[in-house]
Amino acid sequence: MAKGEPQRREQAWTPLPNRTESNTKMKLTRNGKIILSTVMMVIVAITIGLIVYFVAFGSTPFYYHISFKVNNIDYNSKFEKPYSQEYMDLNKKVVSLVNFYESKLTHQHLKNKIIFLFLFYSQLKGKVIVHAVLKFKSCYKNNAAKFWDRIETILRQKLEGKTGSLCVDPSTFKFSDIEMPVAENLLNTCCGQRTITPSGNKIAGGTDAEEGEWPWQASLQQDKVHRCGATLISNSWLVTAAHCFVRAKDPKQWNVSFGLLLSDPQMQRSVKDIIIHENYHYPEHNNDIAVVHLSSPILYTSNIRRACLPEATYIFPSNSDVVVTGWGTLKSDGTSPNILQKGLVKIIDNKTCNNKEVYDGVVTPGMLCAGFLEGQVDACQGDSGGPLVSADSKGIWFLAGIVSWGDECALPNKPGVYTRVTFYRDWITSKTGL
Ligand code: ARG
Predict the structure, then answer these.
(1) DSSP per-residue string spanning 200-218
(2) Which residues line the pocket of ligand 1, CB cutoff 6 A?
(3) Domains identified in the chain and CATH numbers
(4) CA distance linking residue 226 with residue 418, whole number of Å
């Protein structure tokens, strides 16, 4: 332990009245030692720094796309719907084929390197084509080719070996590397999922969101100024509120931006088309819904993804937790934030919301109320068009509402009123095909 050390040091540095030469030498030697140990420490620090640098940055992930035809499975359009039973069942069968984790082959070095696997399906002459995108960790540039060869050999072995109930057609194997943005786009196409698990909760009465927490949130901007929120529902469509376009309907005036900060967008797009519900008549609040078609599709990233749309028959139970997000004002007539805000609210059934002291009968079946009768947390001006989302039991986020109106913000007995997405689900399909 360190106990004895201070004494020794004291001795060495005590000035002696008759200092001999050997004493001076010893002092120099000790000084030398200090210098030497400092130099050693610097060398060790530089070495550690270099190791950390090479581990973290010297190697980059790389991506691999494998596809093959399965002769004994007829194509079903449900295979293209993630979360459908058909998709899940097929996934189970395919995963064991292309996943190194379940490999009987002992390629330990490869097992540790695969970090993500994504499957999707397409069709060829009525049969299924399986596509697997694999993401591999750390591949040093100089031995990438070798690594590549090894992966291809193992996969071929697996696909030509026992393939369970799947009848794989070896003549259709395709192996190729794909560029990072294209691969990340594929890996992030799933709806309602995010890569981060955020801390705490907190619009009016809300708190700052984190990057990637609400990846479907977009800002609708008119001549570069944030006007409304919107929700990404595919790579080229957003859903928002019809009232956002009361003053400006020309797509050329509008832009869409993505990312946590208004001042530093991660992606931007111009708008090709704005489709407003044909029965929306300002200043009424009924049918307050519109869809926006982007001029070119976005590439999904871990921070830009779509929300899931619920089926028309889905019921979001009253009193369940939902989250509203947006860059709207922090209170009625207040200032607007640069960083996206989130607020946890609860669904209030239409009957309660139509009580005399609440909205006294003006809430129609196409609307949904959320907030608290005691007030405190609510959407506010500038949040309009933005998402109200709800997580299902698996943590997948579905779009329940679109910020529409309210009596000021966060007042007692005046919860937020949203466009009920399930009510307009078929309308959304009729306009976007989604
Ligand atoms: N109409 C407002 C807008 O254009 C949104 C109002 C939401 N109000 C509320 N209290 N929830 O941004």
Answers:
(1) ----BT-EE--TTSSTTEE
(2) 328, 378-384, 403, 405-406, 409, 416
(3) 1-36+192-434 (2.40.10.10), 48-187 (3.30.70.960)
(4) 20
Q: What is the pTM of this model?
A: 0.80
Work out whether strand 114-124 and strand 207-208 pair parallel, antiparallel, or are unpaired. unpaired
pLDDT of 42 reads 77
Which residue, 263, 370, 267, 376, is CA-closest to 316? 370
Our answer to whether residue 384 is catalytic in this structure is yes
- Of the listed ranges 30-34, 48-52, 55-59, the least confidently predicted one is 55-59
Residue 243 annotated as catalytic: yes
What is the spatial distance between Cα 389 and Cα 233, in angstroms, rounded to a whole number? 12
Distance, CA of 401 to CA of 385 (rounded, Å) = 9
CA angle (65 as vertex; 64, 68 as ends), nearest 5:
140
Mean pLDDT of the chain: 85
More confident residue, 316 or 161: 316
State the amino acid at position 372 in one-letter form: F
Return the CA Rg of the chain: 30
Task: Verify whether residue 288 is a known catalytic residue.
Answer: yes
Supply the residue whose CA is at minimum distance from atom 6 of ligand 1: 405
Q: Which two tokens stand for residue 195?
A: 């890569």
- Considering only CA atoms, which residue is closest to atom 2 of ligand 1? 381
- Ligand 1 centroid to residue 419 C-alpha, Å: 11
Ligand 1 atom at shortest distance from the alpha carbon of 418: 11
